[in-house]
C-alpha cells in the first residue's frame, strides 16, 4: 500500500460553498502549519526529534518555563522538564497538583503494545484514531501520538502505577470504545487517578529537587506577550488576592477543556477556559471550538440545584436495554408496572442491527429526541421553552437490566457492573437491581481547543498548548481511552522534544515588571477585578453561568441548526450585556472570594460560547460530535461534507467589537483515505 | 425539607471565627450535601451576605478536594466523600453542624477551607519512585504477582482528602502515609528506595506537627476509600527494618 508510506496527497483542499455564518465573521488568510513534517509518515517524528536543536545541560538551568495546569499534560511536562534541568514554575487553581480533573477519568489508556498479539500496531492505532475523529484531525500529530503510546505504559509502570494484571503477573488489557483489538490498559475504574498520581509524584520529586516550584491556589488571569513572544503570566493568589507577575522564557498552557461552558458537564466545578481564552484574546487562535463530545450514559439531572453530572461507563450498554414508555401519560408510572407492549426500545427499533450499541452521538441524540417528544422519565426539571416561558421536562430514559439479570443471573451482573450500580444507588437513592436505571447524555470532553502546530506551539511564539487544551489529535470526536494517552504523550514525550527547538534560541533578553506589556497585562487584570466587584447588580455569577449553559445545551448541544444557532448567538449577546451590568460579587479581592473567581470564569465562558455557536453555524456538515440538522441522510445519520469542510477552523480574536477572523487549515491526508463513517 | 445549619465562619487565617446559624428551606433529598450549600450561598448572595467558602472540585468522590466535619464526623454519617453525601441521609427539621477539618496542621484559610499543603510536602519527602522520563524498561520486564498488584492498587486509591487526620484524636496522618508506603512497597519498582522512603516520609510527617498513631482506627472508619488500618502496620514494619539497617 503506497499510501501507507504517507508521501503523496490522497485528497484535494476543500472548497466551501455554503456560508451560513456570513455576517458573523471575517474571512482570513489560509493557515499552514509552519513546522509540518514531510516524508514517510512512520519516520516523521524520529526525524524531527533529531532535527530539533538541543539545549546543553548547563544552559537549561538558565531557562525559565511556566506551566499552567497540573493534570496529565501539565504534571507530566513539569516533571520531565524539571528532570531535564530547566527551571519550571507550575501553577494550578486547586490546593494540590494531585487534584486536577484528569483524576476523574475512569476507563483506561490506549497503547499500541500489541501484548495480545491481536493484530494491533502503531499504524492501526493511528488509523482507528483518525477514523474515530471522523477525519478532522491532523494526521502527522495523530501518528506521533500512536507512536509514543507504548512508551507511556513503560514510563507509568516504572513509576509504580498499579495497572490491572493477570495471574501470570503481566499487564491485562481490555477492548474499549468499539475497536476490534484489546489495547486498553486500566487500573480498575480509576485509571485517570492512578496515572495522575504517577505524574504528580514525579513532579513532587522535582519540587524536592528544586527544579520545579509549585504554586497552588493560583489562577492565571493573563498571558504576557512582550515583543511578539509569550514571556510570562499574571496570576492571582486565590488565598490573599495578590496579583502576581511571573516572567519566563516560555509559557505552556495545560489548562484542560472547557466543557463547563455548558454549566452542567462531567468536568470538575473549577474546570474553566480562562487561561486559554485570555491567550486567545492576545493572539492565539482557537480551533474547532464547536467540537464537543457528549456521553450517552450519565446520571440525569435531578433538579434545578444540580451542580454537575456524573458519568457511568458506557460498557453498561453491552447488557442493558434502553427504553421509554410509548405513551407520554405512562411516564410517571413505576416502570415495572409498564407492560412490555407499552415500552418503546427505541434504539432497537430504529437501528435493528446495532440496537443499544450505536455510536455515542446517535445514542445521545435519540435520548434527547425521546424527551423532547415528552416521553422522558424521572423527575421533571425546569427549562425555558421556545416561547421563553418555563416548562417542565423529564430528562431521562431507562437503562434496564431486568432481562440481563434474568439471562445471566444477578451474581454475574453484580460482578460485571457492581461498582457502577453502587455509584448509581448512592447518587439517586434507587436500587438499580430492582428498578431500571435512568440515564441521560452529558457533556464530558471538548475536542476543540487552542490551535497548535506540530511542535504544540500556538500562534503566539513561545506559547505552547498541551492536552485537552489544544485541538490537534482527536478531530471531531475522541475515542474512549485516548484522552489519557494524549495528555501523557504531550507531557512526557512530545513537548519536551519540541520546546527545545524554541528554547535553543534562549535565554531571551530579560524583561522586568516595568515592561509596557507587563504593565498592560497587570492593569487589565486589576481593572477587570475592580469591575466585577463594583457592578453591584442583583445576580450571582452562577445564575448567569446556568443561563448560558441552558442556551448552549439547547442550541449548541447534541443537535445544531442554522436557526437555533442564530438564536443562541442573539441570546448570548443579551446575556453578556446583562452580565456586565447586573452581576453581583460581594466581598473584596484581598481574601478567598469564590464568587469573584467564578465571575471571571463565567465572563470568559460567555465569550467562548458565542464563538462556539459561530463555529457550529459555519460548519454546515455533521461530523463526529457536531451534528447539524441540515446535514443528515434520509435515515437521520450524520453526513460529512469533505468537499467543503475538510479543514481546521482556526479563529482569530477580532477585538472587543470586531468579528472573529476565520483561518482555514486544509486537512490533507497522505496515509489514510477519507471514508464516510458507517455503522449499519 | 427545612434545616437549621450551624456553620463555622472565619474571614481568614489571621481572624477569629465563630459559628453562625442559618435556616434553609426547600432542601430536596436528591441534592448532594454540597448542592445544599450552593443553594444556601445563592440565598446569602441575594440577601447581600457573603457566601460560605468551601472547597470542592470533581464532585464525584475522586479528587479529594472536599471535606467537612458534619455533626462532628469527617465527611458526615456515610462512608463516602462530602460531595457524594446526599440529603436523603438527613431529615426534615434536622440541625446540622458544619465545621472545617479539625487539625492544627491544616490551618483554616477561610470559613470551611483549610490548607493541606503538608500532604504535598510528605510526598515530596519520598512518596515516589525515581524514574526519569524515557529511562523505563519495557512494561513487561518486571512481572508483578497479582495479589501484590491488587493490594498496591487498593491502597493507591487514597485521595488525600485529610479525613483520616481530621478524625484522629492524635491528629496523625499515618493512614495517608501508610497507604503510599504500602502502595510503592508492594511493587518491585518500589524496592530500591523502600527504606529510605519510609524514614524520610515519617520525618516530614513529624516535622509538620502531625501526631503519632496509637491504633485507634478512627482514620480507617472515616476514610471514604476504606484504606485499611494495616497499612500503618506496614509503615511501622518498614520503619523498624529501616532503623535496623541504620538508615
From TrEMBL, chain A:
Polar residues bias locations: 1-18
Keywords, sorted A to Z: Flavoprotein, Oxidoreductase
Annotated InterPro entries: FAD-dep_OxRdtase_2_FAD-bd (IPR003953), FAD/NAD-bd_sf (IPR036188), Fum_R/Succ_DH_flav-like_C_sf (IPR037099), Fum_Rdtase/Succ_DH_flav-like_C (IPR015939), SdhA/FrdA/AprA (IPR030664), Succ_DH/Fum_Rdt_flav_su (IPR011280), Succ_DH/fumarate_Rdtase_cat_sf (IPR027477)
All residue ranges annotated as the Fumarate reductase/succinate dehydrogenase flavoprotein-like C-terminal domain in the record: 545-679
Source domain of life: Bacteria
Domain FAD-dependent oxidoreductase 2 FAD-binding: 64-484
Protein name: Fumarate reductase/succinate dehydrogenase flavoprotein subunit
UniProt source species: Nocardioides oceani
Lineage: Bacteria, Bacillati, Actinomycetota, Actinomycetes, Propionibacteriales
UniProtKB/TrEMBL annotation, chain B:
A Pfam family it matches: Fer2_3
Gene3D superfamilies: 3.10.20.30, Alpha-helical ferredoxin (1.10.1060.10)
Oxidoreductase is among the record's keywords: yes
Enzyme class, spelled out: oxidoreductase
Coiled coil regions in record: none
Boundaries of every 2Fe-2S ferredoxin-type domain copy: 1-104
EC number(s) per entry: 1.3.5.1
Domain named 4Fe-4S ferredoxin-type: residues: 149-178
Known cofactor(s): [2Fe-2S] cluster; [3Fe-4S] cluster; [4Fe-4S] cluster
Catalysed reaction, written as an equation: a menaquinone + succinate = a menaquinol + fumarate
Keywords: 2Fe-2S, 3Fe-4S, 4Fe-4S, Iron, Iron-sulfur, Metal-binding, Oxidoreductase, Tricarboxylic acid cycle
Cofactor note: Binds 1 [2Fe-2S] cluster.
Superkingdom per UniProt: Bacteria
Annotated NCBIfam families: dhsB, PRK07570.1
Entry's family note: Belongs to the succinate dehydrogenase/fumarate reductase iron-sulfur protein family.
Protein name: Fumarate reductase iron-sulfur subunit
Amino acid at each position: 500500500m503506497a499510501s501507507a508510506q504517507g508521501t503523496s496527497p490522497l485528497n484535494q483542499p476543500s472548497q466551501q460553498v455554503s456560508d451560513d455564518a456570513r455576517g458573523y465573521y471575517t474571512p482570513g488568510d489560509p493557515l499552514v502549519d509552519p513546522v509540518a513534517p514531510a516524508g514517510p509518515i512512520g519516520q516523521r517524528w524520529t526525524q524531527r526529534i533529531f532535527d530539533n536543536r538541543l539545549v546543553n545541560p548547563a544552559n537549561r538551568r538558565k531557562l525559565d518555563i511556566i506551566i499552567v495546569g497540573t493534570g496529565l499534560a501539565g504534571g507530566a511536562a513539569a516533571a520531565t522538564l524539571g528532570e531535564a534541568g530547566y527551571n519550571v514554575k507550575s501553577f494550578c487553581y486547586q490546593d494540590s497538583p494531585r487534584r486536577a480533573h484528569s483524576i476523574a477519568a475512569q476507563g483506561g489508556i490506549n497503547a499500541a503494545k500489541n501484548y495480545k498479539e491481536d493484530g494491533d500496531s502503531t499504524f492501526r492505532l493511528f488509523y482507528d484514531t483518525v477514523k474515530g475523529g471522523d477525519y478532522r484531525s491532523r494526521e502527522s500529530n495523530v501518528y506521533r501520538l500512536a507512536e509514543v503510546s507504548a512508551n507511556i505504559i513503560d514510563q507509568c509502570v516504572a513509576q509504580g502505577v498499579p495497572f490491572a494484571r493477570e495471574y501470570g503477573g503481566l499487564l491485562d488489557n481490555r477492548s474499549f470504545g468499539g475497536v476490534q483489538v484489546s489495547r486498553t490498559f486500566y487500573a480498575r475504574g480509576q485509571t485517570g487517578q492512578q496515572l495522575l498520581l504517577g505524574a504528580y509524584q514525579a513532579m513532587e520529586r522535582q519540587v524536592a529537587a528544586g527544579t520545579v516550584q509549585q504554586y497552588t491556589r493560583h489562577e492565571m488571569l493573563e498571558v504576557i506577550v512582550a515583543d511578539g513572544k509569550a514571556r510570562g503570566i499574571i496570576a492571582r493568589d486565590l488565598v490573599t488576592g495578590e496579583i502576581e507577575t511571573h516572567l519566563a522564557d516560555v509559557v505552556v498552557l495545560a489548562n484542560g477543556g472547557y466543557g463547563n461552558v455548558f454549566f452542567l458537564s462531567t468536568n470538575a466545578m473549577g474546570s474553566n477556559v480562562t487561561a486559554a481564552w485570555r491567550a486567545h484574546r492576545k493572539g492565539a487562535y482557537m480551533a474547532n471550538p464547536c467540537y464537543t463530545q457528549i456521553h450517552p450514559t450519565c446520571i440525569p439531572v435531578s433538579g434545578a440545584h444540580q451542580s454537575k453530572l456524573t458519568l457511568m461507563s458506557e460498557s453498561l450498554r453491552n447488557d442493558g436495554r434502553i427504553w421509554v414508555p410509548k405513551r407520554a401519560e405512562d411516564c410517571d408510572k413505576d416502570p415495572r408496572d409498564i407492560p412490555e407492549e407499552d415500552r418503546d426500545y427505541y434504539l432497537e427499533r430504529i437501528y435493528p442491527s446495532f440496537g443499544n450499541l450505536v455510536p455515542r452521538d446517535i445514542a445521545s441524540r435519540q435520548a434527547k429526541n425521546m424527551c423532547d417528544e415528552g416521553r422522558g422519565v424521572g423527575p421533571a426539571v425546569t427549562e425555558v421553552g421556545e416561547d421563553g416561558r418555563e416548562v417542565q421536562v423529564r430528562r431521562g430514559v431507562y437503562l434496564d437490566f431486568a432481562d440481563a439479570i434474568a439471562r445471566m443471573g444477578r451474581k454475574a451482573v453484580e460482578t460485571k457492573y457492581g461498582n457502577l450500580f453502587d455509584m448509581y444507588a448512592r447518587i439517586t437513592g434507587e436500587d438499580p437491581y430492582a428498578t431500571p436505571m435512568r440515564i441521560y447524555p452529558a457533556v464530558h470532553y471538548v475536542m476543540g481547543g487552542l490551535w497548535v502546530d506540530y511542535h504544540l506551539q500556538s500562534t503566539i511564539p513561545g506559547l505552547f498548548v498541551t492536552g485537552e487544551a489544544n485541538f490537534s489529535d482527536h478531530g471531531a470526536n475522541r475515542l474512549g481511552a485516548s484522552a489519557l494517552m494524549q495528555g501523557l504523550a504531550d507531557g512526557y514525550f512530545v513537548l519536551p522534544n519540541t520546546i527545545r527547538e524554541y528554547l535553543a534560541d534562549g535565554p531571551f533578553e530579560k524583561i522586568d515588571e516595568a515592561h509596557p506589556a507587563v504593565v498592560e497585562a497587570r492593569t487589565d487584570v486589576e481593572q477587570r477585578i475592580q469591575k466585577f466587584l463594583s457592578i453591584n447588580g442583583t445576580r450571582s455569577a452562577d445564575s448567569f453561568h446556568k443561563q448560558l449553559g441552558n442556551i448552549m445545551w439547547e442550541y449548541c448541544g447534541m443537535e445544531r441548526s442554522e436557526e437555533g444557532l442564530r438564536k443562541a448567538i442573539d441570546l448570548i449577546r443579551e446575556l453578556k450585556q446583562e452580565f456586565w451590568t447586573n452581576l453581583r460579587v460581594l466581598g473584596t479581592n484581598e481574601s478567598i472570594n469564590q464568587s469573584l473567581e467564578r465571575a471571571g470564569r463565567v465572563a470568559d465562558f460567555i465569550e467562548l460560547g458565542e464563538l462556539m455557536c459561530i463555529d457550529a453555524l459555519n460548519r454546515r456538515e455533521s461530523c463526529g460530535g457536531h451534528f447539524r440538522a441540515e446535514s443528515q441522510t434520509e435515515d437521520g445519520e450524520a453526513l460529512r461534507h469533505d468537499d467543503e469542510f475538510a479543514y481546521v477552523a482556526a479563529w482569530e480574536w477580532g477585538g472587543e467589537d470586531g468579528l472573529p477572523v476565520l483561518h482555514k487549515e486544509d486537512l490533507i491526508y497522505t496515509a489514510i483515505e477519507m471514508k464516510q463513517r458507517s455503522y449499519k | 425539607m427545612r434545616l437549621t445549619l450551624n456553620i463555622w465562619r472565619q474571614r481568614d487565617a489571621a481572624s477569629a471565627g465563630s459559628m453562625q446559624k442559618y435556616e434553609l428551606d426547600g432542601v430536596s433529598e436528591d441534592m448532594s450535601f454540597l448542592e445544599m450549600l450552593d443553594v444556601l450561598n445563592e440565598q446569602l448572595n441575594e440577601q447581600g451576605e457573603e457566601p460560605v467558602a468551601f472547597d470542592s472540585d470533581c464532585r464525584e468522590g475522586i479528587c479529594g478536594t472536599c471535606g467537612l466535619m458534619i455533626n462532628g464526623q469527617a465527611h458526615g454519617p456515610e462512608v463516602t466523600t462530602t460531595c457524594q453525601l446526599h440529603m436523603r441521609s438527613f431529615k426534615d427539621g434536622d440541625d446540622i453542624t458544619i465545621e472545617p477539618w479539625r487539625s492544627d496542621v491544616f490551618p483554616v484559610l477561610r470559613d470551611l477551607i483549610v490548607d493541606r499543603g503538608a500532604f504535598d510536602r510528605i510526598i515530596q519527602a519520598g512518596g515516589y519512585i525515581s524514574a526519569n522520563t524515557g529511562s523505563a524498561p519495557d512494561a513487561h520486564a518486571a512481572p508483578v504477582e497479582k495479589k501484590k498488584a491488587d493490594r498496591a492498587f487498593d491502597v493507591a486509591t487514597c485521595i488525600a482528602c485529610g479525613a483520616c487526620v481530621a478524625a484522629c484524636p492524635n491528629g496523625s496522618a499515618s493512614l495517608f502515609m501508610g497507604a503510599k508506603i504500602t502502595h510503592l512497597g508492594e511493587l518491585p519498582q518500589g524496592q530500591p528506595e523502600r527504606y529510605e522512603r519510609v524514614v524520610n516520609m515519617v520525618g516530614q510527617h513529624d516535622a509538620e506537627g502531625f501526631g503519632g498513631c496509637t491504633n485507634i482506627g478512627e482514620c480507617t472508619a472515616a476514610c471514604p476509600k476504606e484504606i485499611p488500618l494495616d497499612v500503618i502496620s506496614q509503615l511501622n514494619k518498614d520503619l523498624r527494618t529501616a532503623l535496623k539497617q541504620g538508615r
